[in-house]
């Protein structure tokens, strides 16, 4: 029964070779336009490191039969990724949470709760421009439900580590590193990966019955040895999938595993779906006035600490803050989840954006502490409020309070409104740059704060003055100055021809 599958309409058998050939053909077509944001631009890139959906695949945690509560790297591809190990405490900052439970062996092996109770979250490392997203799925595992690619044990060896009167459990985490913000795709894939493991374990039901009956156990040829090899081959094919075009589908159809199918969404910008999901977690935990208070502090580069006991909420809100200030980029450190080993960072003088699921006993007064569980903001220093507060609150006051799910259209309106306000602020930077091109071989451009402030009403200038002195604005203006100098050089060269 499981060796045959009725072909589903619209789903083609998976072929990595065919997908790669289609990808190369698309690269040969000139003028391919797939979007205007940073992620979809990479689809048109010839660079080897941007050809694929996935940069790396990891599994973190510990083995249930071990004693350590510290998370470590259990599997990595590519194996030459020497930075993989340092990410373990960020994925499981509170350790692997060991537990001993009484259970039924058969139901434990086929328990759907491993997937149903798993937690998906996204870590964001903006300093890693090649692949800033680390998509993670946290789940519980016992000796028989540990992913088979994490070890080389046989069925008998695994059964020796089980105990129905005291089954050991601990947390593990699958993590996928990528440049592309397709959170729905990666969440679906990682859950599919765990489903494949569960389907494979169904092949050894007779052996489990023999074990419970104290009968002789015969080594099963399929699980875990053959399954480990089959699933690893499937994983390798997945890791080398080229980025599909909008509305194209990715399909993996390999018996006996369930079908995996996903279609790339057609959105204005590729990060919009994940952005509105992240902003929803911010909006549902802060009222509109506190939301604007946090946005105001963010634009002035205040150090911000986000707390909530739920990993997904914390990571989503950290990511939301980065999306809200586009086209600016936060230039200081940003940590989605703070491991206990790095708590000394809270005493650092530089601005940080940090998320935590652990209680913080004390922070400096300069920090803006956002307690999402209590829906409150605490700070020792007063937050200077952005002067467009009334405009924003009047626009969204009613619809903001009516947001009750991540599909609400108001979320994209909030994102675009915040981005529009930032664009208004940075739009005046270019017109505040004066260029000296008296020497065509040494064209120099300089930003003048006095000119910049004149673009705003008197009551807004204090905020804009502090804003324009932030590091992210200073770096932005440096880029604008170089661009304006280059434009003047090109104009001068054209005039002299």
Oligomer: single chain
Q: Which range does the strand content fall in?
A: 15-25%
Give start-end ranges of low-pLDDT stretches. Answer: 1-37, 42-49
Report the helical percentage. Answer: 25-40%
The domain tally reads: 3
The total beta strand count reads 15
Compute the separation of the termini in Å: 77 Å
Domain UDENN: 57-487
Organism: Tritrichomonas foetus
Protein name: UDENN domain-containing protein
Pfam families: DENN (PF02141)
Topology:
Elements: H1 16-28, H2 38-41, E1 56-61, E2 72-77, H3 88-91, E3 99-101, H4 105-109, H5 113-116, E4 119-124, E5 133-141, H6 155-159, E6 167-178, H7 183-201, H8 205-212, H9 222-239, E7 249-252, E8 260-263, H10 272-283, H11 288-299, E9 304-307, H12 311-324, E10 333-335, E11 352-356, E12 368-371, E13 376-379, H13 389-401, H14 409-430, E14 433-436, E15 444-447, H15 449-453, H16 461-468, H17 471-496
Parallel strand pairs: 9-11, 9-12, 10-11
Antiparallel strand pairs: 1-2, 1-6, 3-6, 4-5, 5-6, 7-8, 12-13, 14-15
Helix pairs in contact: 7-9, 10-12, 13-14
InterPro entries: cDENN_dom, DENN_C, DENN_domain_containing_2, Tripartite_DENN
Protein name: UDENN domain-containing protein
Domain UDENN: 57-487
């Amino acid at each position: 029964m499981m060796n045959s599958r009725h072909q589903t309409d619209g789903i083609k058998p998976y072929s990595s070779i065919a997908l790669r050939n289609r990808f190369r053909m698309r690269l040969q077509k000139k003028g391919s336009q797939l979007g205007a944001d940073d992620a979809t631009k990479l689809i048109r890139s010839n660079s080897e490191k941007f050809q694929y959906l996935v940069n790396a695949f990891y599994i973190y945690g510990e083995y249930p039969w071990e004693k350590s509560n510290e998370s470590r790297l259990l599997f990595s591809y590519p194996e030459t990724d020497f930075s993989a190990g340092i990410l373990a405490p960020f994925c499981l900052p509170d350790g692997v949470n060991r537990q001993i439970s009484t259970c039924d062996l058969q139901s434990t092996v086929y328990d759907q709760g491993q997937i149903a109770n798993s937690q998906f979250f996204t870590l964001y490392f903006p300093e890693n421009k090649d692949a800033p997203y680390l998509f993670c799925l946290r789940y519980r595992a016992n000796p028989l439900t540990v992913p088979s690619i994490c070890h080389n044990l046989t069925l008998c060896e695994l059964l020796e580590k089980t105990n129905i009167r005291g089954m050991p459990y601990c947390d593990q985490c699958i993590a996928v590193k990528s440049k592309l913000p397709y959170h729905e795709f990666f969440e679906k894939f990682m859950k599919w990966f765990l489903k494949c493991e569960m389907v494979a374990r169904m092949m050894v039901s007779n052996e489990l019955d023999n074990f419970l009956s104290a009968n002789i156990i015969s080594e099963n040829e399929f699980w875990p040895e053959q399954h480990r090899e089959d699933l690893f081959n499937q994983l390798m094919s997945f890791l080398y999938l080229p980025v599909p075009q909008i509305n194209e589908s990715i399909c993996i159809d390999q018996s006996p595993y369930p079908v995996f199918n996903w279609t790339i969404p057609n959105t204005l910008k590729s990060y919009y779906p994940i952005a509105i999901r992240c902003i929803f977690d911010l909006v549902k935990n802060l009222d509109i006035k506190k939301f604007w208070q946090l946005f105001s502090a963010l634009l002035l580069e205040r150090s911000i600490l986000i707390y909530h006991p739920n990993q997904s909420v914390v990571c989503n809100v950290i990511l939301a803050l980065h999306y809200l200030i586009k086209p600016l980029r936060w230039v200081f450190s940003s940590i989605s989840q703070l491991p206990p080993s790095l708590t000394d960072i809270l005493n650092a003088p530089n601005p940080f954006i940090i998320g935590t699921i652990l209680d913080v006993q004390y922070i400096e007064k300069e920090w803006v502490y956002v307690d999402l569980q209590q829906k409150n903001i605490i700070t020792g220093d007063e937050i200077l409020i952005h002067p467009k507060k009334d405009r924003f609150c009047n626009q969204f006051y009613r619809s903001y309070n009516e947001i009750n799910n991540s599909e609400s259209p108001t979320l994209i309106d909030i994102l675009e409104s915040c981005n529009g306000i930032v664009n208004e602020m940075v739009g005046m930077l270019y017109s505040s740059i004066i260029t000296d091109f008296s020497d065509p071989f040494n064209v120099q451009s300089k930003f003048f704060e006095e000119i910049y402030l004149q673009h705003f009403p008197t009551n807004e200038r204090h905020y804009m003055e502090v804003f324009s002195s932030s590091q992210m604005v200073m770096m932005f203006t440096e880029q604008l100055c170089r661009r304006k100098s280059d434009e003047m050089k090109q104009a001068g060269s054209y005039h002299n021809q």
